[in-house]
Amino acid sequence: MTAATGVSGETERSTTTHVVWASALGTAIEWYDFLIYGTAAALVLNKLFFPSFDPFVGALAAFSTYAVGFLARPIGGAIIGHYGDRLGRKRMLVATMIAMGLGTFLIGCLPTYSQIGVWAPILLVILRFVQGIGLGGEWSGAVVMVVEHAGNRRGFYGSLVQIGFPVGVAASTGMFGLMTQLPEAYFLSWGWRVPFWISILLVGVGLIVRLKLAETPHFKEVVERKEVLAQPVWEVLRRDWRSFLLAIGITISEVGLAYLLTVFTVLYATTKLGLPRQVILNAVVYAALVEFATLPLAGWLSDLFGRKALYVAGGVFTVALAFPLFWFLDTREPVLITLALVVTMTLTHALLFGPKAAFVPELFRTKVRYSGASLGANVAAALSGGFSPLIATALLGWTGTSWPVSLYIIALSVITIIATLMTPETARDALKS
Questions:
Q1: Count H helices, E strands: the chain?
Q2: Predicted TM-score of the model (pTM)
Q3: CA atoms of 218 and 380, how far apart (whole Å)
Q4: Which sign, positive or negative, has the C-alpha torsion 167, 170, 173, 176?
């Protein structure tokens, strides 16, 4: 009996480990696909797809197309979440990877404004929309897959999936950093395309890994009990609306921070401060690399002390660092800039993003977990993530200084702190059936 139990336990741990790392790898590829667009928008897309505009207006236009991907994410979350709760988590994770990979690769193939005129930005918007649809179901599917395998260590195992974000940031920013070493003419003609083209190879690897994943035991139980819902999205809005609104609230600061720290800071440093691109790109990469350690640490701590404690701490640190972040950037000193991004990313984004992989799915029942997590996270992403670089750029253009951006960061954080205080603690409870 003991031997059988031991073998069963080893098999379960082996399955969980495989699911975690397969999900993390796939998520890293998906984030790479999505994030290279943000770096490209800050560095080059305004020149190639909106060249008739003033540079500042061109940047606003580029960030507007960046926001399109986030507007598509709730739509993708609703569609993919619906089928994820009806057909299974695994099938949808394969579908999202295909959608993201094709959209990203084709962006790298697009003719520019000088070649086909207004059709260039139109096609760019369409492909960005496709990217958003794919990512709308990717993150939630990956974390639901892990959380439903993870037993009582959901915070830690879920946070390992979150490593995909800093991997994507480091890989996408690092790839562009490498390409910017080319002569300017080469970078503008073909160098910027290479990061997009590489995506197709990464997606091939990710598909092979994901096709080997096992469906979650929780979803299998729903199927066996014949409790699969016909309209899970409608069920979320009808019966789980409070959890849906809380998921938006606890997510809104983290997702806004993610893109302010990795996208807007690139624009701010290169245009407002006139720094070489490599200085800020290196700083972003180093900050992302530190999150390799801080995200799992935050997830582990959330299993010990609860999700809410980590979220409140992250919110308070965000308020405290909103102004010092830009004070350090304004020094124009590479070491201080890197230090500012590393500390800010660690004490704000990591404390929120690490536990999020468990916190958001735990708010919903198994029958609607994929749909609920997708809608909550992606509506928040549409409200703050996609528009945060655009809003920050507009605020910077309005005043010529960073203080309104700091106030914007504080406002997002206050919303998250209030939502966290209203959310029940989920760390020590079993998943809702």
A1: 21, 0
A2: 0.82
A3: 26
A4: negative
